[in-house]
Amino acid sequence: MEDKIISIIGSYDKDPERLMDILLSIQHEFGCVSEIAVSVIARELGLSEVDVVQTRSFYHFFTVEPVGKYAVYFNNSVVSMMMGMQDVMNEFEQLTGIRIGEKTNDGLVSLHTTACIGMSDQEPAALINNVVFTRLNPDKAKKIFEDMKAGIPVEDMIGDTGDGNNAHPLVRAMVSNNIQKAGPVTLGDYYEGISLKKALQMNPKNIIDEVKASNLRGRGGAGFPTGLKMLFCSLNEGDKYVICNADEGEPGTFKDRVLLTERLPMIFEGMTISAKGIGAKEGILYLRYEYKYLRAYAESVLEELRSKNMLGKNILGTGFDFDIRIQSGAGAYVCGEESALIESSEGKRGEPRNRPPFPVQSGYKHKPTVINNVETFCSIVKIIEVGGLWYSKLGTADSAGTKLLSISGDIPKPGVYEIEWGMTVNEMLEMVEATDVQAVQMSGPSGLCINPTQFDRKIAMEDLACGGSVIVIGKQRDILKDVVLNFMEFFEDESCGSCVTCRSFNMILAKQMKKVVEGHATRNDLKNMKEWSKIIASTSRCGLGQTSSNPITSTLANFPELYEARTVDVAYQSDFDMDKAIQEACEVVGRPARVPHHN
Ligand SMILES: Cc1cc2nc3c(=O)[nH]c(=O)nc-3n(C[C@H](O)[C@H](O)[C@H](O)COP(=O)(O)O)c2cc1C
Ligand code: SF4
After folding, report:
1. Are residues 198 and 334 in the same domain?
2. Least enclosed by CB within 10 Å: which of 33, 156, 347, 557?
3. What is the 305 CA–ligand 1 centroid distance (Å)?
4. Which strand (E) or helix (H) includes residue 86?
């Protein structure tokens, strides 16, 4: 065992900054990262055992004890649970005779839960040894368990897996991506290499000017102007880096999965153009662990681009060098936050950094770094191909271009829709043929839960911002139990724990929400929940804590009657003005009110 561990460490040049990859390889090889492995890693990398344990303990998919030969990770996020995951989990527990969190005595199966795996269009879904199983039900569970007992490898369980089995080498052929509506930018025609050739002939300043002219704003949620980000980075001295954020973890979003399977060469082309613009030589695609099944495919695309001289040294004979490596995550929603992602890429716990300095000043390896969302890089390619002016005319004045929405929940055609910014929620609901809608959860848990009186609002940065997740909630749903409680438990689990308020109040809010759902909460509890929500929003270091109370504050504001119906003693009166509360919180910390931040 020790020899194997040493050889894995050697394959990463004994570089402590590659600790994540080393741990991932060891977890893959031995089914866990044991205490012995920790000692060997620490010794070989010249780290303390505490350093190694700190990183191991941070991520969901590293385990101290070996997982089962078949490690089943059920997605327990909102849409999966809405679509019947509880029945599937019950069936597996019954079949295996173990509870979630346990392993069978013979080591055959272990059962776990995990947050959204980016399959909300095909729920209920689970990962078994990194293979996606979709549209599960108790009958499929029985068949899968039979196959497990027969020792059939997960990749060969075709037929059990539904549309989502993407362990196949031709991953694109096997993934059902549910592209319901392609638009002119990211899911429109893509001509490989055209934009790159053009950009390589351009002066870096002109590349940045073209992106600025497009008015493109980042598609990860915060909506920062992409051209400005490139400009700020380019003005700094020293080595520079380009990072693509493919950590897509916001419950309900899966649009980056679609781009990663349908438009991977376009993503890499966008990164290369950005690198030329800012003067970077190295790039990283940070791929969330839940998309590990895409890694081999992604490596093959990189190889192909290198063989076409579209990556590597002297790209297309222009003297420009740039290459990309893939960094896998290991399961932590907060790593989607850009500075946490950078920490993780350096082999550490994914704890967000204090900002400033921003990544454009001090990012990966403390060098100037541009970090953008997958969709943003695809948009850059189109902008260079067709021109910033053309792009700026799509959408609205403040939100140029198109946006990919991952639309799921109680609708007949869940999937990815490329829309122009400015579409109203009503128009969106008509497009997806939704009926009997009680609420729409815009931009995932960190966004807002809106009621039908707000369906005439525009999906745009200046009105209803959206990073990509749209969950349609039908009239049959219990919003407080099925949605808000699930979201609050999600934030409780995903807080990195650095800020006292985020760590403790998210836990308290989840408990209080349970109390509401069970019908024991009082009016005083609701008052406290409002106060705590304000405190978390105003005192947390990163966007997770700054928005984690949104599920409560937005439903208190938009669905007060649901709380009233469940509150004991005095009836709850909605005197809560969320916009005012956010404004007040922002004043406390001296920054402008923010929009929901990501996908
Ligand atoms: C908790 C948290 C999770 C995030 N997750 C993602 C993500 O999965 N993908 C993403 O692109 N941005 C995510 N973001 C936003 C990033 O911090 C960052 O703003 C973004 O990657 C910048 O790219 P853009 O300018 O192209 O949007 C997240 C932010 C927070 C606070
Ligand atoms: S707000 Fe929460 S997730 Fe963000 S740094 Fe603080 S504790 Fe960590």
Report:
1. yes
2. 156
3. 26
4. helix 85-96
Give 55 Cα–ligand 1 centroid separation in angstroms. 21
Q: CB of 496 closer than 6 A to ligand 2?
A: yes
Q: Decide the pairing of beta strands 437-442 and 448-450.
A: antiparallel
Q: Which ligand is nearest to the CA of 254?
A: 1
CA of 598 to the centre of ligand 1 (A): 5
Looking at the fold, whether 487 and 441 belong to one and the same domain comes out as: no
Q: Report if pTM > 0.90.
A: yes
In a domain, 595, yes or no: no
| Pocket of ligand 2 contains residue 548 by CB under 6 Å | no
In terms of C-beta density within 10 A (0-12 exposed, 13-18 middle, 19 or more buried), how is residue 354 classed?
Answer: exposed
**Which ligand 2 atom sits closest to the C-alpha of 494?**
3
**Residue finishing a domain among 174, 192, 210:** 174
- The letter for the amino acid at 54 is Q
Residue closest by Cα to atom 23 of ligand 1: 372
Map residue 19 onto helix, strand or coil.
Answer: helix
Same domain? For 298 and 313 the reply is: yes
> What is the spatial distance between Cα 169 and Cα 156, in angstroms, rounded to a whole number?
12
The residue range of the domain holding 152 is 70-174
- Asked if 6 and 145 sit in the same domain, the reply is no
Q: Tell me the CA–centroid distance for residue 597 and ligand 1, in Å.
A: 7
Q: Are residues 107 and 190 in the same domain?
A: no
Alpha carbon of 8 to ligand 2 centroid (Å): 32
Judged by its nearest atom, the ligand closest to the C-alpha of residue 226 is 1
* Distance separating alpha carbons of residues 17 and 364, to the nearest angstrom: 11
pLDDT in tens, the chain (599 residues): 899 999 999 999 999 999 999 999 999 999 999 999 999 999 999 999 999 999 999 999 999 999 999 999 999 999 999 999 999 999 999 999 999 999 999 999 999 999 999 999 999 999 999 888 889 999 999 999 999 999 998 888 865 444 455 555 555 445 678 899 999 999 999 999 999 999 999 999 999 999 999 999 999 989 999 999 999 999 999 999 999 999 999 999 999 999 998 999 999 999 999 999 999 999 999 999 999 988 988 999 999 999 999 999 999 999 999 999 999 999 999 999 999 999 999 999 999 999 999 999 999 999 999 999 999 999 999 999 999 999 999 999 999 999 999 999 999 999 999 999 999 999 999 999 999 999 999 999 999 999 999 999 999 999 999 999 999 999 999 999 999 999 999 999 999 999 999 999 999 999 999 999 999 999 899 999 999 999 999 999 999 999 999 999 999 999 999 999 998 875 445 555 656 666 665 665 555 555 444 43
Return the ligand 2 atom nearest residue 540 CA. 1
